[in-house]
Structures are given as structure tokens and as C-alpha cells.
């Protein structure tokens, strides 16, 4: 695999989750551009630098020991990648701690490096949160590959930070630079909320939650066909997002025991708050994790899942396939995985390779709901 070379370090980096013969590398030209830009400024080691949305640790590990560094993002997989890549490059696994995006940072920063996220609502929330955390004359630099850099990203920097200048493209990457200027205080529009009719539940959604403004059509197709009569079953909502599948299932299965898990810290925060609003003090486990990797084998009776088909800008079914494998490992013999998926993705055939029986529970013109029994 290629090595990330910058004025700060040479790093051998891997992505998360691991894939055999990984076709993609764990950094890109935007990471290189951000690091080179920072190096040109020859800043003192005491400079406080905030790194946001560093997917696999390329920026943070390069800058570790160079500055007073804080790194924050919304990906549990990103946190795992950071630990693994620290060790891979001869550094203690806990040399840097990723601060979840659901938590606030402290103090003032002279420099902020941002990888522009796919969800611009996350970028907006992060820029709003920078209020009161930028030292006088602080510089905020956002980087991305040109094909993933919408005009709106510059508009947000202009609105919340200060005048923006764009660099020339280098290796198909570009930087947007804003120098902090006084701004009137902004109130964040996040979290957003929407209501379900059946059951009557209001759902809160922090900035990086999938389908933040309303129920996605796959989940809408799934909800009427969630399993009933589960008794005291142990149920997991895998890739829970705002928790809607687990919460609706729990309302219909008052004696079942639930675990809600997602790799997004903001999703987990949303799910925990929504559970409490809908179900009060009813016991639940809500955690950020690499899917069901942290779940004990044969510890679940039912898994509910609306699997993702992308990781950031990378589209594919590798995450869904991995979730199916994790579900099989976590389920007891006779346990069942219920999923919703687009018809064209062919999940029936994929599940048949892992489970002894796969049946179609329901279908719409676009989606199928499948039950796979271990």
C-alpha cells in the first residue's frame, strides 16, 4: 500500500473495516494538501490545532507530537482506525484520543483542519460549535477532493467563520481557507425532529444522522413488518441511526431486551435520547461500535437491520456483507436476522450463503423485507 509522506511524518496506514486485498488507500491528496499547507506556516509547537473528520488518522497521526493536538469526528470506525494506525506506525495506541462528535471540545485553537464530510449538516454543526473556540486570527482550513467539494461548503465557512479563499487544485484536491472574524452568535438548527403517525413517536436527529429530516423510505417499508410476539427475546437494532427500528419494535414487544448499535456517535446520541423519550426508563443498551464486533457470540435472538450501502463517499455492499456476517455470529441457532434492502442489491442470494433459510417477508416495488434464520 502507498505510504503517506508529508513534512511531518511517513505513515503506513490502513482503512477500517479491514478488507482482504483492500482496493482503496487510507488517505488521499486532500490529506497531503492540508499537511503541506500547515507545514509551510512553520508554527510553534505550542500551537493548538483541532482536526475534524479525519477518517483513518492520516492527519492526526502526522501531527501527533508536533502541536497541541485535538482530533474529533463522528466515526467509531475512525477511532478504531486511529488506534490501529498508531500501533502500525510504532506509537502507543492511546497516544491520541478521538473526541466523539457528540462531545464538545475545550479551549481556543489557532488552527483548525477539516476534512469536508459527506453530510454538510455535520460541517455546519461543527462550524457553529467553533464559536468561542477560535483564538484571535485563527485560520480554519477545509480540504476535500474537488469532486466531493460542494459550493455550499465554502458558503458555510463564509457564514460562520470569515472570508473564504480557495486554493488552486493540486492532484485533484482543493483547500478552502477562512480567517476567523467576529460573528454574531448563531443558534444551531440541530438536532432536527420529525414525527411518526403509527406509532405516535417524535424522533430527534443530531446533525450527522442518516435521513435527518424524515423517515427514509426503506425504514418506512420495514416498520409494518417488524417481528411481533418476541416475548423476552434479546434483540439488536444494527446500524440503528436514530433508533427508530429498535424503538418501534420495543413498543410492540414490551418484554424483549434491546441493544441499539451504530458506528456514528451522533446516531447513538440520537437513539439514546429517542429511547428515553419514547420508553422512559426501560432498560436498553445503546453503544457506538464496529457493528456487532463487540457482541458476544450466540447472545442474540433477533437482529433488525437497514444496512448502509456507503462509507462516506465510497459506495458498495461491503459494509452490509460484514453486518450480515456479524449478525450470524451473534445470533443463537434458530435466531433470525430481519433486513430491508433495495431489490436490485440481491441480498437474498448473499444471505443464503450465510444462513440456512431465507424468506421474503414482504415487498414493495422498490424494497424487499427478508428474514434469514441461522
From TrEMBL:
Transmembrane stretches, start-end: none
Quickly give the catalysed reaction: guanosine(1835) in 23S rRNA + S-adenosyl-L-methionine = N(2)-methylguanosine(1835) in 23S rRNA + S-adenosyl-L-homocysteine + H(+)
One annotated GO molecular function is:
nucleic acid binding
Domain Methyltransferase small, which positions?
A: 201-371
Please report the stretch or stretches of sequence annotated as the RlmG N-terminal domain.
1-181
What EC number is given for this enzyme?
2.1.1.174
What exactly does this protein do?
Specifically methylates the guanine in position 1835 (m2G1835) of 23S rRNA.
What does the similarity note say? Answer: Belongs to the methyltransferase superfamily. RlmG family.
Give the UniProt entry's GO cellular component terms. Answer: cytoplasm
Its localization reads: Cytoplasm
Which InterPro entries does the record associate with it?
DNA_methylase_N6_adenine_CS, RLMG, RlmG_N, RsmC/RlmG, SAM-dependent_MTases_sf, Small_mtfrase_dom
- Note the PROSITE patterns from the entry: N6_MTASE
The molecule here is called Ribosomal RNA large subunit methyltransferase G
UniProt xrefs under Gene3D superfamilies: Vaccinia Virus protein VP39 (3.40.50.150)
**CDD domains annotated for this entry?**
AdoMet_MTases
Amino acid at each position: 500500500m502507498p505510504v503517506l509522506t508529508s513534512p511531518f511524518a511517513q505513515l503506513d496506514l490502513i482503512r477500517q473495516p479491514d478488507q482482504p486485498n483492500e482496493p482503496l488507500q487510507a488517505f488521499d491528496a486532500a490529506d497531503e494538501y492540508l499537511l503541506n499547507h500547515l507545514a509551510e506556516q512553520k508554527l510553534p509547537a505550542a500551537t493548538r490545532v483541532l482536526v475534524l473528520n479525519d477518517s483513518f488518522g492520516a492527519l492526526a497521526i502526522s501531527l501527533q507530537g508536533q502541536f497541541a493536538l485535538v482530533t474529533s469526528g463522528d466515526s467509531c470506525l475512525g477511532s478504531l482506525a486511529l488506534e490501529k494506525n498508531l500501533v502500525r506506525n510504532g506509537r502507543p495506541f492511546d497516544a491520541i484520543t478521538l473526541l466523539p462528535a457528540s462531545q464538545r471540545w475545550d479551549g481556543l485553537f489557532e488552527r483548525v483542519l477539516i476534512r469536508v464530510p459527506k453530510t454538510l449538516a455535520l460541517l455546519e454543526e461543527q462550524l457553529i460549535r467553533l464559536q468561542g473556540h477560535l483564538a484571535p486570527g485563527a485560520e480554519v482550513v477545509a480540504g476535500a477532493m474537488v469532486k466531493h467539494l460542494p459550493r455550499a461548503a465554502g458558503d458555510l465557512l463564509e457564514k460562520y467563520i470569515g472570508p473564504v479563499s480557495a486554493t488552486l487544485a493540486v492532484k485533484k484536491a482543493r483547500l478552502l481557507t477562512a480567517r476567523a472574524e467576529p460573528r454574531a452568535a448563531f443558534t444551531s438548527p440541530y438536532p432536527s425532529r420529525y414525527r411518526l403517525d403509527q406509532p405516535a413517536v417524535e424522533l430527534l436527529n443530531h446533525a450527522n444522522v442518516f435521513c435527518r429530516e424524515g423517515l427514509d423510505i426503506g425504514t418506512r417499508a420495514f416498520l409494518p413488518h417488524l417481528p411481533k410476539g418476541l416475548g423476552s427475546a434479546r434483540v439488536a437494532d444494527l446500524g440503528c441511526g436514530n433508533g427508530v427500528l429498535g424503538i418501534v419494535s420495543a413498543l410492540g414487544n414490551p418484554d424483549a431486551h434491546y441493544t441499539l448499535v451504530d458506528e456514528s456517535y451522533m446516531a447513538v446520541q440520537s437513539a439514546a435520547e429517542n429511547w428515553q423519550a419514547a420508553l422512559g426508563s426501560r432498560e436498553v443498551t445503546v453503544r457506538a461500535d464496529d457493528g456487532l464486533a463487540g457482541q458476544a457470540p450466540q447472545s442474540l435472538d433477533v437482529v433488525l437491520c437497514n444496512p448502509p450501502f456507503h462509507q462516506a463517499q465510497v459506495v458498495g455492499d461491503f459494509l452490509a456483507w460484514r453486518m450480515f456476517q456479524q449478525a450470524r455470529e451473534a445470533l443463537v441457532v434458530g435466531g433470525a436476522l430481519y433486513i430491508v434492502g433495495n431489490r436490485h442489491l440481491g441480498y437474498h442470494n448473499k444471505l443464503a450463503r450465510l444462513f440456512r433459510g431465507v424468506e421474503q417477508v414482504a415487498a414493495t416495488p422498490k424494497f424487499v423485507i427478508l428474514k434469514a434464520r441461522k
